[in-house]
Design a protein that fits this description.
single chain, Lyase, Ornithine Decarboxylase, Chain A, domain 1, TIM Barrel, 2 domains, 11 helices, 16 strands, elongated, binds ligand LLP
Length: 384
């Protein structure tokens, strides 16, 4: 993955930093575009996964739309030049200024999560003399068997409209004049490896569509959200996620009405594998049972291991010494500031460079400033 000359360039840069392999990003996006294109599927990139300006610009150039969850994400993608007509806005807590911003940009669709929100969108759209296009985000009550913090589509989650509220919503939609129902939206969770969860989603969507058709409603589009997982264990073998199987599954199982379009909101699967966090070993200290490799990146640069006990492959880029085991930890004053326990690495010393892999999604974007740390920098492979 890393050539000698790349590693040589890494040595000259202050650490820690994110490094993005741009040829790999482009190859991945090309695959998404081809596989989704086979069925005329629309893909909105989930900006929350990585909002690095340069990465966004590349994604925009491939013609993907954007899935935003805040006013600032909408402002950002408009700035980068994404097409408003391919921009969707989701989130359980859209504030008035965010709704107004989205209305001003005439975005494609608001993915609505409650009856209360629909009323506010109607009111604000009315003030502007506009009709807001909306989709109902329905909680399909499907458990995707992923980490419980990133499960979103079961009834105990805060997300989406519960099926028992649909009757009331349809009655309300007859009255409201400034919103127009154009879609149904679903999202069951993230890092889903077992595609059977998506099968369950398709079956549930088919049933929900029947209910809507019984109520004489056929929406223009079905948005099935995102969630396709990636291989954190073996990023070099499974570099590009199983897009063909994924899109093919929806093609086979979703029962569409004539002219109905299918939309996706993929985040992780589009950007995760192209990113690595490069960090320098500061000290190697002997613990009671294990050596600690203390590195200059911490949970402030990559929160996933601390927050979700997430596994990321760690490689020593500058040693080919004897194999040994280390707990790889950061400098932050929290015991959860650890990137991995009992990690097999070649003998590791001060100033070695480690790569923490598969961090292109939910890595840089989740950085924060605890301990007053500087926000992490990033470099694209074609800039080095
Ligand atoms: N659509 C909606 C409505 C979502 O909530 C999400 C992610 C996506 C699309 C994109 O899902 P993806 O394709 O990336 O799985 N920070 C966590 C992940 C949180 C995902 C939140 N929602 C992590 O680091 O694993």
């Amino acid at each position: 993955m890393f050539t000698k000359s790349t590693i040589q360039k890494f040595r000259e840069l202050p650490t820690p930093f994110y490094y993005y392999d741009i040829p790999l990003l482009k190859k991945t996006l090309q695959r998404v575009s081809e596989e989704a294109g086979k069925y005329d599927y629309h893909v909105h990139y989930a900006v929350k996964a990585n909002a690095n300006d340069k990465i966004l610009a590349i994604i925009k150039d491939f013609g993907f739309g954007a899935d935003c969850v805040s006013g600032n994400e909408i402002a950002k993608v408009m700035d980068i030049g994404f097409d408003p007509d391919k921009t969707v806005f989701a989130g359980v807590g859209k504030s008035d200024w965010e709704i107004n911003l989205a209305l001003d940009h005439n975005i494609f669709c608001f993915n609505c999560e409650s009856i209360q929100e629909i009323k506010v969108i109607d009111e604000l759209a009315g003030e502007k003399g506009k009709i807001a296009p909306i989709a109902l985000r329905i909680n399909p009550n499907i458990n995707p068997a992923t980490h419980h913090y990133i499960t979103t589509g079961i009834e105990e989650n805060k997300f989406g409209i519960y099926q028992w509220d649909l009757e009331d919503i349809l009655q309300l939609l007859v009255i409201l004049k400034n919103v127009k129902l154009i879609g149904l939206h679903f999202h069951i969770g993230s890092q889903i490896i077992d595609l059977n969860a998506f099968k369950g989603l398709c079956i549930r969507i088919n049933r929900i569509q029947e209910w809507f058709i019984d109520h004489r409603i056929i929406v223009d589009h079905i948005n099935v959200g995102g969630g396709l997982g990636i291989s954190y264990e073996n990023p070099d073998r499974h570099t590009i996620p199983a897009f063909a199987e994924y899109f093919g599954l929806f093609k086979n199982l979703l029962e569409l009405r004539p002219k109905q379009k299918v939309h996706f909101e993929l985040g992780r699967s589009m950007v995760a594998q192209c990113g690595s966090l490069i960090t320098r070993v500061l000290y190697v200290k002997n613990g009671v049972k294990i050596k600690f490799a203390i590195v200059d990146a911490g949970m402030t640069e990559l929160l996933r291991p601390a927050l979700y006990q997430a596994y990321h492959r760690i490689e020593n880029l500058t040693s080919n010494g004897k194999p040994d085991q280390y707990n790889v930890v950061g400098p932050i004053c929290e015991s959860s500031d650890s990137f991995g326990k009992y990690i097999n690495l070649p003998e590791t010393k001060r100033n070695d460079l480690l790569a923490i892999r598969s961090v292109g999604a939910y890595g840089e974007i989740m950085a924060f400033r605890y301990n007053l740390r500087d926000l992490v920098k990033s470099y694209l492979s074609d800039e080095l």
